Amino acid sequence: MRIVSLCPSLTELAFDLGRGEELVGITDYCVHPAEKVGAIEKVGGTKTPKIARIVELRPDVVLLNEEENRVEDAEALAAAGVRTHASFPRDVQGTAEMVRSIGEALGRAEAAEAIARDIEARAARVRAAAVGRRAVAFAYLIWRKPWMAVNRDTFAHALLAQAGGTNVFADRAERYPTFELQDLESSRPDLVLLGTEPYPFQEKHAEEIALATGIARERFRIADGEYLSWHGSRTPAGIDYAEKLIAGARQARSDGA
User: Fold this and answer.
1) Residue 257 has pLDDT above 60, yes or no
2) What is the pLDDT of residue 252?
3) CATH code at 33?
4) Which are the contacts of 114, defined by CB distance < 8 A and separation ≥ 6?
5) Which neighbouring-strand residues pair with 223?
6) Geometric angle at alpha carbon 67, from 154 and 82, rounded to 5°
7) SS3 at position 14
8) Mean of the pLDDT values across residues 106-134?
9) Same domain, 131 and 234
């Protein structure tokens, strides 16, 4: 089978399903597994794929994500007679279903089922553990200039919410709403998460926001954006990671931070 992946998390999933050696094209942003992706031809970015070259590679399937990739590129591939598989999970159960669907498309249903069941089992454990625990008000920031966060219709929200988090920007109309720092201050979050992608937040940005808002510096955490936004075979670890972030903030609040 010849496979092209135009989404980093799906490239990683293809490897974990045992099809990595059959990838003939990936994006410039496909970085995992680091020791293996270097040998695979790069066919552009997630939003700037080299359609003509992808067609020349004669893939049996091109893996797409409906948020990461553009509709016009999917349509161009389809017009060229290239089979595509598009997915867009917004929560944990949707991710398990996506894994099963891609497993079917790649002829790796058994391996996919194992990953999907792991996702479902960990999610059930985390939800059960959160019952009766104090909710943790959080904001998950993804961009600076302008400041941007996530609302409830996002994968990151789903991971953190099932662990007992309450998103202070959950009800914003945009999936990735812009906000002013005074909005963050007035929301009184217990936890402010600064993602490492797409904007590469660092500790200096936590200092900046804490100084501007008066929110205690101890409430800020740099959060691994791959664990909180990549859906696929990284999701089981992402579920556990989100739980630790929420549990840590809950404990800190109990200790008076």
Assistant:
1) no
2) 86
3) 3.40.50.1980
4) none
5) 195
6) 145
7) helix
8) 98
9) yes
Helix %, strand %, coil % for the chain, to 5?
45, 15, 35
Q: Report the pLDDT value the prediction gives residue 180, as an integer from 0 to 100.
A: 97
DSSP at 44: B
102 contacts 5 by C-beta, under 8 angstroms: no
Rounded to whole angstroms, the Cα distance separating 44 from 58 reads 16
Instruction: Give a yes or no: residue 49 inside a domain.
Output: yes
d(CA 50, CA 4): 11
Work out how many domains the chain is built from and give that number.
2
Say if CB 141 and CB 147 are below 8 A apart. yes
82 and 197: one domain?
A: no
Cis peptide before 33 (omega within 30 of 0): yes
Look at residue 256 in the predicted model and tell me its pLDDT: 60
Interval 56-82: pLDDT, tens: 999 999 999 999 999 999 999 999 999
* Average per-residue pLDDT for the chain: 97
Residue 112 lies in a domain: no
Residue 165 — very low, low, confident or very high, per pLDDT cuts 50/70/90?
very high
Distance CA 95, CA 205 (A): 31
Q: Tell me if 134 is assigned to some domain.
A: yes
User: 181: domain range?
Assistant: 120-254
Task: Indicate whether this model's pTM tops 0.85.
Answer: yes
Q: Which residue has the tokens 């990953």?
A: 115
What is the Cα–Cα distance from 66 to 231, expressed in whole angstroms?
Answer: 13
Percentage of the chain beyond pLDDT 70 is 99
